[in-house]
Structures are given as C-alpha cells and as structure tokens.
Amino acid sequence: MTDTAKAGIPSTKGQITFFYYADMAAAERFYGTVLGLEKTFDKEWVKFFRLADHAQVGLIDEAKGHHAAGNARGVMLSIETAELEAWYARAKAGGAEFIKHLNPDQTTNALVNAFLLRDPGGYSVEFFRFNDAA
What we know:
Elements: H1 3-6, E1 15-21, H2 24-34, E2 39-42, E3 46-52, E4 55-61, E5 76-80, H3 84-93, E6 97-100, E7 112-118, E8 124-130
Parallel strand pairs: 1-4, 5-8
Antiparallel strand pairs: 2-3, 3-4, 6-7, 7-8
C-alpha cells in the first residue's frame, strides 16, 4: 500500500503542466524538435509531450484555451535528470535560448547542478540533477 493510500488520499494517474502560446508552431518545434520529446497527443490547439512515464507538458493555443499567452512568466518547468550533460548538449545543438548555462564546476555544496532555457512563449525550462554531497 502506498503512503498516499494509507493517508486516504485518492490516487492519481499522471501530471500535465499546461503552457499557453500565441505561436503554437514555435512551441511545438521547441518541445518536439529541439528537446526531442515524444508527442503523445495532438488536437491542433492542444498538444502533449511526454516528460516521464506519467508526466507531460501540454501546449495550448491561447485562441482556444482558458488563458491568454502573456509576457509575465511566474511559472517554470523543472525536469530532474541523471543525464544532465546529455540534455545540455542536445539543447545546445538544437539552438535553444539559454538563460543559464551548465556549470561543470558546480560546487559540491550546491543542492543542484542545473541549466535553464527559455521556450518560445517565454517560459523557463530547467534541467537539473541533485548533487549527492549537498
């Protein structure tokens, strides 16, 4: 029995983080081509890309979605990975816009080693790995 089941919390099947875009084609290129994520759902105005077995990022066309795309981005997609350097190389080769580059000399007392990208809608996308020594 899981801890949530023991606590009486209903189960969940997965998680999707939705972002809203004025330019769906640019967002789809970023997640599908630059990052190479698998598209699992496509209804033109809404698209899902798999991050992990039960976690996805959803792209929504602002013209049909509940929210409008805007300039202020108070949300960040954070992706934990053991293969940080491989994701960094992939993003760099794909021409991603970096907010923060990977620092291979990250101090061992830091909690994580990470890099940050900006997606076509202005959202921050972080790839990180927890440091064992932190």
